[in-house]
Design a protein that fits this description.
Helix content: 55-70%
Shape: rod-shaped
Largest sheet: none
Oligomer: single chain
Distance between the termini: 187 Å
Length: about 260
Amino acid sequence: MAELRSFVIGVVLAGALLGFGALVTGAFSGDGGTDAPSVRLLGTPRLSPTARAAQTRPQATQATTQAAATSTTTPAPNATQRPSPSPTSQSSALPDRTSCDAIRGTPYRSDREREFFLANCLPTPTPTSGPGAAGQGSYPNAAASLASALDAQLAYLIERAASPALEDASWRQFTSQAAQNVKSLAADVERLSPPACLASAHAGLVQAARGAGAAADLMLAGVSASNSGQVSQAGSALGVARASLAQAADAVRSASC
């Protein structure tokens, strides 16, 4: 009886072991039903094209960043940038001229050159008497030329009197020369020989020229004495003389023979 029980227990155990072994074998072999679980070895996962593009994008971005950094370290040449002029292309200041013919009709190079011209370069009127006289027909032109030169010298002296610089040697030199020019031009006006029909107009021109000469004498006295008050007084007299000269010159131009 005991032997029979042991045999039955052994058969049961053996059957259980065989069933368990079959179960394990079916699970790992994958030969069972469609619903039986299977075990696969894990390898490198396969990536979709979108995932692969996303994975390679940082590399492309990095390359772009490196290229941008390289381009900033080596700037492209600026097409609008112009080379600085060489020293030889820069013109140097031209010296002042001391020739009336060289200055006449051209821009002044400096204030000093202008002063030289106004003080020294006078027009040469056509003589109306003495050697080289062109006759009575030349008087209107000669009178107009002298009146124009005299007016320019008076205007220059009036400008000098408005801003006297008696301590400046150049100012004194050019002012004195212009005053002497006024006296010389006034004397040339008196030497003109007008035709009889213009005698009255010429007398008025002579009187205006004498007034200009007297005002020039006042200027010379003020410069010689370094007296700014006297220079200013001379400036007022020069203004009156200039106005009288303009009226007399108009009378000569409008007179007829």
